[in-house]
């Protein structure tokens, strides 16, 4: 059973990275460059992803199981980020605040929106997006507060308004009433939302490919610190979370969705926020790129374990 699940999940991960290969090739040929991808990220993050999340909530069947699942997903998502933050604070303590901050950001925050959501949709279906959307909302809360505080070298002030006022959280707050009330949504509104939401996975992976195309493969596999961060992000945190969630009785598709999110590689916006807050952009790219390459091998194993024990 484990091998069957490993093959299925590995195939889905491979498919997503083949789509990323389009972005890699188009960047190298000058058709669609990293600068174009950065502009598209704003569209994805602020428009397409929120529409995908809202559409999933408003079309998901209302049930006691799903209500319970939302609450558990919030707890699991917060627990994962809190655990990651705790582990990261024990590392790189002799480095400068800037360098330490970028390593901490890379450990705590996964590529939940651009890789976990597409993979969850492929492996689980609409329920995968449903539960992973909750994780993305928590990711945004952490990224816009603790994440920015760390990657700025603790120079940026903690803006707690951004716990709520960010695209991921707002989309979930819009989606939740639609899920609970189950209003009639006309076809001419629902279907365009579905079409736009379906763009999230392929476009996100194509943009991700442009980021890989601009990463130094020589540097990313030469620094021992990057290997350590990848190990914590891809193996240590997910396995600890798998044990904790299982011990707390989390099972089934919810467990799989949470592990897909928890085992995703370093967030692709690590390099972008490093640039914005005068940190090491090249290091940010290398951290995201190496963990992304290695996740081709680690994610199928972690997620297959989750499907077997769950």
Give a written overview of the molecule.
With 310 residues, this protein is mainly alpha-helical. It is built from 14 helices and no strands. The longest helix has 29 residues.
Strand tally is: 0
Q: What's the mean pLDDT score? A: 92
Q: Give the uncertain stretches in residue-range form.
A: none
Beta-strand portion reads: under 5%
From the structure provided, what is the oligomeric state, counting identical versus distinct chains?
Answer: single chain
Q: Compute the gyration radius: what is it? A: 18 Å
Helix coverage percent of residues?
A: over 70%
- H/E series, N to C? HHHHHHHHHHHHHH
Structural class, from secondary structure content? Answer: mainly alpha
Describe the sheet with the most strands: none
Count the DSSP helices. 14
Based on Cα principal axes, name the global outline: globular
Distance between the termini: 12 Å
How would you briefly describe this protein structure?
The chain is mostly helical and 310 residues long. It contains 14 helices and no strands.
